[in-house]
Amino acid sequence: MSQIDVVALVKAKPGKGAAVAAAMKACIVPSRAESTNHLYVPHQDLDDPDSFVFIEKWDSREALQAHLETPHFKELAQTLEPLLAAPIDVKILRPL
């Protein structure tokens, strides 16, 4: 397997940062419990409380795809959709 890193940039609508943060926090424990996950840490920008960054490590692209199909991720995506100012910008990376 080829481990991948994921960086996802999330921008909430003005004033929706607290709701986005709560939804993201609810997804932490079940995501970290996935056997193919090695890191799952959402961050909130200190200077812009409506901006967030996910930093994740997965065993492979296939593992990430399986994560996207889990009930906890689907619930997160559904909850976030009306709260976001723009689509989530996801970067799938490999270390050099």
TrEMBL record:
Domain spans labelled ABM: 4-93
Keyword Oxidoreductase: yes
Single Gene Ontology MF annotation: monooxygenase activity
Keyword field contains Oxidoreductase: yes
Keywords from the named record: Monooxygenase, Oxidoreductase
Transmembrane segments: none
UniProt-listed Pfam families: ABM
Protein name: Quinol monooxygenase
Species classification: Bacteria, Pseudomonadati, Pseudomonadota, Alphaproteobacteria, Acetobacterales
